[in-house]
Amino acid sequence: MKIRTWLFHIALAIYSFFYVIPLMWMFYSSFKDNGKIFDNPFALPENWNFGVFLEAWSAGGLGKYILNSAIITSLATAIVLFVSSLAAFAFSRYEFALKRYSLTIFVLGLLLPIQAYFIAQNELFEFFGLKDSRFTLVLPYAGLGIPLATWLLKAYLDSLPKELFEAARVDGSSDIGMYRSIALPLLKPGIATVAIFTALGSWNEFLLANIYVQNDDYKTIPAGLLAFSTKYVTDYQLLFAALTVVTLPMIIVYIAFNKQVVAGLTEGSLK
Amino acid sequence: MKPTSKWTPFLFILPAFSIYAFTVLIPLIGTLGSSFTKWNGYGSPEWIGFRNYLRALKDTIFLSSFKHVFIYVLATIILEVAVGLILAGILSSRKRTDVYRIALFVPVMLPMVIVAVLWRFIYNADFGLLNGALEGIGLPQFAKIWLGDPKFALAAICFVSGWVYAGFYLAIFYAGLQRLPREIIESASLDGAKQSAIFWKIKVPMIRRLWEVAVLICITGGIQGFDLFFVMTNGGPYYSTEVPTTYMVRMVFRDQEIGYGSALAVLVTTTVLMIGFFYSKIRKKSEQVEY
Questions:
Q1: What is the CA radius of gyration of chain A?
Q2: Could you read off the pLDDT of A244-266 as tens digits, one per residue?
Q3: What is the CATH class of A67-219?
Q4: Which residue from A190, A229, A219, A212 is spatially nearest to A70, judged by alpha carbons?
Q5: B177 touches chain A (CB under 8 A)
Q6: Shortest CB distance from B30 goes to which of A112, A124, A225?
Q7: What interface predicted TM-score (ipTM) does this complex get?
Q8: Domain coordinates of chain B in residue numbers?
Q9: How far apart, in whole angstroms, are the C-alpha atoms of residue A141 and residue A203?
């Protein structure tokens, strides 16, 4: 290789190092007790005792937070995909009264910040006794995801040829039959994209999670980890271990599916 | 296409619309309504007209929170969009850069709260990585209580945001640059143009739509910023990192000032919508060929 190429890679490796080192520091500090952490933050641990991860897992109930996040994320994502693909089908394929108005109302959701409605949403959920349960966050997260999902899936459906549906109609296909046997199979790439950003959005959401769920048993990862860091405020080793337990699996999943994740996230926010 | 019955399309839309109406539309109207009241969440709300709005315009903490969020937005445009653009230019000029792109995108997919807790440790005055590094390279005089010092806390938070999202915009711009037609760039290099000139004068204008959208996301997203601020400083020290949403959340959920909090929410929403509206107006005027 030429010298310029070497310099290029050395410079970029140093830059990337600023991304890797905080995560590595988090990982190896899990093996150092408080004294060692204060003594020299950079020093590598003397012994690698993986038991600390088990301790963080059981003492802090991390498993519970991860399970809650998994349940809420999968339910919210499934609901968004189902209802948004139905709505997108109607918006893309049919002409009907009030179509423009109803579409505008959905598009409004793309522009609205969560601040526009979360205060009254909280009151509404309070009124109906929907707060503080295992499923509390499913509906708000579905509501957050529906506008963008509907919009993107409609764009995907708009690009399909009209003839496909007209031919099916001539063959006597019903409305729901066309949705199931033509639209859904052809929507698969769009659904994958929408699934990725809806799922990541729900997995990472914090503002609502922090307000709606006080019971520790129902907290999701972001709110749960924050509660954990308040509870074990000075046990740095345990905190580093907890951070590692929740981030490492995500990083592994990301590295395995990085193309899809990057595409899903960037496409979702560009439209 | 015509539906078999005129009700069919509405049946298709109904499930999505019900959830959306229940979680977004009704609360939207509710927030607007309660912004004209004085209400602690228990008794009955008292109608007070525009008094909450007048109070907001005189509320120095709220006004300074707008100033902070404005600084934050400017910082993120530089640290995220500009840095992401430069990185994309550098990385797209060579082959085999996957490793770097994968590494720089990692923080984007982690929950902001986790990133914030981690950076609270990095900035920690006693055992933090940053002060440790400064001492390690012989500059202990620059070590600080980063998040505890009103002069540095906001900058420290802006930096974390840049650390997270530069990789995100890098991914967007990189994908855009890869899609540019080869012929134009090749003919420019045949004319003897330098790589950097080709990048700034030809490629960057060609992906204009992408960085315009990126700037818009930075502005509207930045005004809504919450997670980083809440976890790292919660507005402190001495309100030096107070942003509209941290202040609003404290008003509503700690001080039970639901009416006033709603008025603040309406003001923030209006700001976001107005900026989005004017920005897209300006963009439409200067619309160009898209890639």
A1: 24
A2: 999 998 999 999 988 888 887 77
A3: mainly alpha
A4: A219
A5: no
A6: A124
A7: 0.91
A8: 50-285
A9: 10
